[in-house]
Amino acid sequence: MRWKDRKGSKHVEDRRGESVPGGTSRGMGIAGGLGIGRILFSLFARGSGKTKMMMIAGIVIAMVVFKFNPLSLISGGPMTMGANSKTEQTTPKQPAPDDEYGNFLSKVTGMNERFWADMLPKYNIRFVPAKMAIYSIGTKMDDGSVADARMGPFYLPSENRIYIDPTFFEQMRDDFGVEGEFARAYVVSHEYGHHVQNLMGRTTALHSKHGKISKIEYNRQSVRLELHADFLAGIFAHYDDKKFNSLDRADILSAMACAKAIGDDILQKRAGQRVNSDHFTHGTSEQRARWFMQGYNNGDFKEGEQIFSMDYNLL
User: pTM score > 0.85 for this model?
Assistant: First the structure.
């Protein structure tokens, strides 16, 4: 991926190295989050008796070996290691804002920003740039709750802000075997897609249904939103590549590998579970990769609207 000569965004804030606040992590009202704690908690809640026993055994072993508090995986505070840990920690000194991760995130955000600023007014959608907070471990959000790195990258509609700990890219490599700069750019562009959805009113429409429709139907509506964000990431890639010759075939393959690695069906299989589509919230590996490619191949912004109206089983 050719990105180093591109202009960065002035809406990116680097918070790495700041003190990690105590507090409560936020669950409802975010879009596109993916983290180990959230995945483990979800899988435990839905797992079979055998799966639960295996997870409990693993946690007990980790408690003895690493002396950590297992409640930190689902609580709002940071993970505590050892007997003398405190709720508030100071993160190790992180690289300066002009390190490669910081540069990459700023420039990919800027690339998305300039593209959507040009595209959305053509469809009578008022553009407001998204903000990004780059942080390590945890950072305080505007409402006082804490963004936890274990949730993975996510978009917070109420702030128009993307939160991301760059070590997630190392997790992609180590846990999912996904590498490549455009795989990382796909993650950022997917989250920027959630911002575009927010500007379109799609996010509010979904959140307004919470508690008013069945859990299964809400999950299905969430899948539609996530696949649309994948589609929007493909739209961005289509036009950026066309204008700047920024991508090679290997880049596209890395994005598809990333989309496939985090499909709901793959995550359930990795946890030793039977695949249950009623619990899907992001879509299957095949769906995620296909809708990204649909956007990349066609570049037709309006085509994405069919995701919200077509038969769910045909997505």
Answer: no
